[in-house]
Amino acid sequence: MNRKWYMNKIMVVDNDAMMLEFMSDLLNNKGHQVKTAIDGLAALEALKTYTPDIMFIDLVMPNISGEKLCRAIRRNPEFKGIYIIILSAIAADLEMDFTEIGADACIAK
After folding, report:
1. What is the pLDDT of residues 35-59, one digit of tens each?
2. How far is the C-alpha of 53 from the C-alpha of 28, rounded, in Å?
3. Could you give phi then psi for residue 95, rounded to 5 degrees?
4. Given a cut of 80, is residue 74 above it in pLDDT?
């Protein structure tokens, strides 16, 4: 089977430095271009110069929560093509429809 692999521009947003390093290493090793942000505010700042194809976003972060970040991204037509994945420890505990906040998928960490 002939598979084509494409490099994606990815942003990982999490206030846990170990998770940022883990995800960054994992995705870089798969050939993707990765940018990290320590919280929602830093992610919004990074989005001024870097438009990723995919974003992994934690829900619980200081300054701007993952939920507010998702909603802010979805309000901007320039970012409508970004595929947003919630990557959060509390995702399994919440009875939340992640599509309501603009996410495309949810993974419990």
Report:
1. 999 999 999 999 999 999 999 999 9
2. 14
3. -100, 75
4. yes
C-beta separation of 8 from 33 below 8 A: yes
At CA 74, angle to CA 43 and CA 12, rounded to 5? 30
Contact between residue 44 and residue 64 where contact means Cβ atoms under 8 Å apart: yes
Region 9-108: CATH code: 3.40.50.2300
DSSP 7: -
Nearest to 53 by CA among 83, 80, 28: 83
The mean pLDDT of the chain is 89
- Report the alpha-carbon distance of residue 36 to residue 94 in Å, rounded: 25
Q: How far is CA 47 from the centre of its chain?
A: 11
Mean pLDDT over 77-99 rounds to 82
Do the beta carbons of residue 55 and residue 85 sit within 8 Å? yes
Please write down the HEC assignment for all residues of 35-48.
EEECCHHHHHHHCC
Please state the separation of Cα 43 from the chain's center in Å. 9
